[in-house]
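notes to self, project folder thing:

trying the whole complex as one job this time. last attempt i did each chain seperately and stitching them together was a nightmare. two parts in total, labels are on each line so i dont mix them up again. if this works i'll redo the older ones the same way
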Amino acid sequence: MDALTPEHSDKNSALGQRYGAAIPPTGPWNETIASLLQHRSVRGYKPDPVPAGTLETLIASAQSAATSSNMQWWSAIAVTDSAKKKALAEIAGGQKHIEECPLFIAWVADMTRNQRISDQEKVDFECMPWLETFMVACIDVALAAQNAVVAAESLGLSTVYIGAMRNDPVRVANLLGLPKQSFVVFGLCVGYATEKAAGEVKPRLPQGIVLHHERYDAGQKAALHQAYDAEMTKFSQRHELQAATWTQRVLNRLGPIKSMNGREKMRTALASLGFEIR
Amino acid sequence: MDALTPEHSDKNSALGQRYGAAIPPTGPWNETIASLLQHRSVRGYKPDPVPAGTLETLIASAQSAATSSNMQWWSAIAVTDSAKKKALAEIAGGQKHIEECPLFIAWVADMTRNQRISDQEKVDFECMPWLETFMVACIDVALAAQNAVVAAESLGLSTVYIGAMRNDPVRVANLLGLPKQSFVVFGLCVGYATEKAAGEVKPRLPQGIVLHHERYDAGQKAALHQAYDAEMTKFSQRHELQAATWTQRVLNRLGPIKSMNGREKMRTALASLGFEIR
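result (full assembly):
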């Protein structure tokens, strides 16, 4: 049968939005996958609150993600208070969507909870001060939060991660009353997108650059890179973004130290919050 | 209406498996969320291959996850070669499911690709050597991989993350031909679970311990902690796990340095792979 079924048409349209002309040879497809492909980070929210119980549904989804050795290295702090959201928005360099969104979730790498077991049971935790353990906590946070994002978007809600909580981890920790050995890895705005902010799916690098078989393929792939630069130029023109190509965005983002917004001091800030990261 | 609809019955059953008696007051529910709640890490696979195009569907899902400033800090290496899977299983301390699964995906924090732009355009990337940038790369990897897990499970496939790739990051990098400034954050087995390995949903901490409102609640919550220890004891008895309570598992996992399987040397290993992590 040559005619496209509605399902195939949706699939090709979703892949076209994500990859432009470089559509990968995907196989199985369903509604969950269609929802994943439709992801957009949204930076404008209506004031409407999320339905009762939504937060608990998101947290149940987050807790269902894998967690290394079931250590469950994270906590979530739901923030709905206007003054607190305003203070967080300010730390994040004035991102007004943090104020606008009805629900802001701070995702905490929480080593306090397990450390407390060490104290109570009087067993020295030799595994705590290492880079490995710190990384595992951050990864646990990310796996959990991503499940919450998937759940939120499946319910018609929009989200955006707020990495700028790391502009000043100490101030964020004070504002949210965090104990030592915990810090906010990132925030997440949750709510209903305004029409203007709903936006468009952002193209990603062709799979030929990202996916390798059996071994890393270190070939330069200049043609694929150029094709992606062209896709991002078209996307930038439609959205009036400053930088035209992906290459230019990478140069702007990673070149000058000022684009880190002070996050080069993270190690010192985390040390003062009780993280050794040996 | 008092009678439970099938949907509500499924929801309560899913929450009961995840939380035991401590069922949280969740709200909205749908098939995607039901699939998230059903997650289990599976350590036994049938030899059946995954359907054609599945890998590309999983990678399209992964690439649709949020990525910090669209830097796309990751690559994926699909491994299906038996000898290579065997070598990886050995590095992971003999985890035979790595050999068994038809598809193993190595998730790479890939700072090489962006670094190459620095070299080509002759612009110094001042933002590269910091803990912040390393963390962002690891978080990008985790968000992407979790989307792939969600997609795989929605298709009836099972998965398990393999953190033990970090037991020897240098050997893994050599085996997969990684360039400098890239390393395997974790692996992922993908395939069809054997009946024996399909297993049971693992209970998690009550939401009252994990979820906070407006501020971190540093109260001890001993009753909730004990209730979870009791749930995990029942779960352990059903599955003949060694440690009975969660508390005991935490003591075993974080107490003695030997339970890190050498990963306390990660920082040195990563330095030799070109990661400064200042």
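what i see at first glance: The mean pLDDT of chain A is 95.
need to look closer tmrw
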